[in-house]
Structure formats: structure tokens, C-alpha cells
Design goal:
Distance between the termini: 18 Å
Helix content: 40-55%
Oligomer: single chain
Bound molecules: NADP nicotinamide-adenine-dinucleotide phosphate
Radius of gyration: 16 Å
Shape: globular
Length: about 220
């Protein structure tokens, strides 16, 4: 399986990259990001760029892939509405539309979050934006698309969040998260499990397009 990975420098993406590099069935990983993922592996190639809206200059390098794991994303905390929408909706759909055209056999996996609002009508801004992003991704002509909606994610194997405040919360909450993942797996998953579940749905599919933590942990 040949995989394109966005967001490999982030908390979720670092975990997903680790699992892709460890999985014998993943033969190639193309990382697309603003900076290097900081890994060396015979399976790994990287495209470093600033433009995440127009891929016409690299289309030839984006064809022939089986899956895209889209882990690029930001927190809405402290961000104005227009910028959050741009970083969440515009950037995601620009990449996905290009990839769907170049790889109609591709499986696309998008990381949203627990509480995403599929109705696009609710009171919570970030949830509406993520909901519209999910809904429009599901309309694209991929072989399949899966929306991952994790709640809390326990970072494992040295994975760190890009956002200092998120990292601080995860360090402080590590013992609690570790306990919660045992007693309430419905609400907590891990970076390792996110990566393993993405590979699993890309390879074998899943009965429904939206996966909560419970589904992610089952895979
Ligand atoms: N962490 C959690 O607990 C959690 C829980 C539920 C859902 N999620 C969702 O999972 C997704 C990823 O979260 P995360 O925790 O991995 O975030 P993170 O650690 O902050 O990483 C964000 C990733 O997105 C990239 N990115 C951000 N802005 C960008 C831009 N303007 N252009 C290009 N790349 C950009 C970053 O690249 P740079 O290195 O270039 O900045 C980085 O690779 C988000 O959609 C988030 O809502 C996270």
C-alpha cells in the first residue's frame, strides 16, 4: 500500500507516520508538509512546501497512491472564524479534490474530532466547520473516505503536540489518560491506535464512514 500523509509533524501525524513505517504492508509513504518530519526510512519521501491550496506543480508526484491519511489540522482555540475555516475546510478540500482526481482508487482518511456536527447547523463553530469538511469529503469520488473522530488521544512513543498548551495538558494528564484508556476506552485512544486503525480501514474497509474512539480502538 502506498500512502500520502499530511500533518506528519503534528501529534496525530507523528503517530501515524510511525505505524506506517513499521507496517510491512505499507511500501511507500509520501509526507507533504511545511517542514521535514525528522525521520529517515527507506520507505519515506517528503515534499516540503508552503502552498497547501494548489498542487498543480507536483501533480505527477501525487498519482498512483492507495491511501491518504490527512492529519493536518488546527485547534480553533484563540483563532478567528475565517482563519479556522480556511485552515480546516479550504486546505483539506483542496488537497482531497486534487487527490480524488488523480487517484480514483484512493481511500481518504480525515481526522476530525469527537463532537463534530454533521448537521452543520449547531451552535459550536468548530464543530460546524469540521462537519461541513467531513460532509464535502464524503461527496468526493474516492474509493472510500473515512472520518476519524477521536476524543482524547494519548501520545505514545515520544510523540508530542505542536501546540505548547496541548502538550502541557497531555503531560499533566498522562496518568489520568492512561487510567481512562483502560476503564473508558470509549473516550480515549492513542496515537499508535490511530495509525493502526487508519492502515486497517485503508486496507480492509469499515462498515461505516464515521469512526468514533470506540471504533478506532476496535481496529
Ligand atoms: N491532539 C488531540 O488530542 C486531538 C483530539 C481530537 C482531534 N484532533 C484533531 O487531529 C488533527 C491533528 O491534531 P494534532 O493534535 O496532531 O495537531 P498538531 O500537533 O498541532 O499538528 C498540526 C499539524 O498540522 C500542520 N499544520 C497546521 N497548520 C498548517 C498550515 N497552515 N499549513 C500546513 N500545515 C499545517 C502542522 O504542521 P507544521 O509542523 O508545519 O506546523 C502539523 O503537522 C486536528 O484536526 C485536530 O483537531 C486532535
Amino acid at each position: 500500500m502506498k500512502v500520502i500523509l499530511f500533518g506528519a509533524t503534528g501529534m496525530v501525524g507523528q503517530g501515524v507516520l510511525r505505524e506506517c513505517l513499521r507496517d510491512g504492508g505499507v511500501t511507500q509513504v509520501l509526507v507533504i508538509g511545511r517542514s521535514a518530519a525528522g525521520q529517515r526510512d527507506v520507505k519515506l519521501t517528503e515534499i516540503i512546501r508552503d502552498d497547501f491550496l494548489d498542487y498543480s506543480d507536483i501533480e505527477a508526484q501525487l498519482a498512483g497512491f492507495d491511501a491518504c491519511f490527512f492529519c493536518l489540522g488546527v485547534s480553533s482555540v484563540g483563532m478567528d472564524a475565517e482563519r479556522y475555516r480556511h485552515l480546516t475546510y479550504d486546505i483539506t478540500l483542496a488537497a482531497a479534490a486534487t487527490l480524488a482526481r488523480l487517484n480514483p482508487q484512493m481511500v481518504f482518511v480525515y481526522v476530525t474530532g469527537a463532537g463534530t456536527d454533521s448537521s452543520e447547523q449547531g451552535r459550536v463553530r468548530w464543530a460546524r466547520v469540521k462537519g461541513k469538511t467531513e460532509n464535502d469529503l464524503l461527496k468526493l469520488p474516492f474509493r472510500a473516505a473515512y472520518m476519524f473522530r477521536p476524543g482524547a488521544i494519548q501520545p505514545l512513543h515520544g510523540v508530542r503536540s505542536k501546540a505548547a498548551w496541548v502538550q502541557a495538558i497531555y503531560v499533566a494528564a498522562a496518568p489520568l489518560l492512561s487510567w481512562l484508556s483502560r476503564v473508558a476506552p470509549k473516550y480515549v485512544t492513542t496515537t499508535e491506535q490511530m495509525g493502526r486503525a487508519m492502515i486497517s480501514v485503508a486496507r480492509d474497509g469499515y462498515p461505516k464512514p464515521v469512526l468514533e474512539s470506540e471504533d478506532i480502538n476496535r481496529l
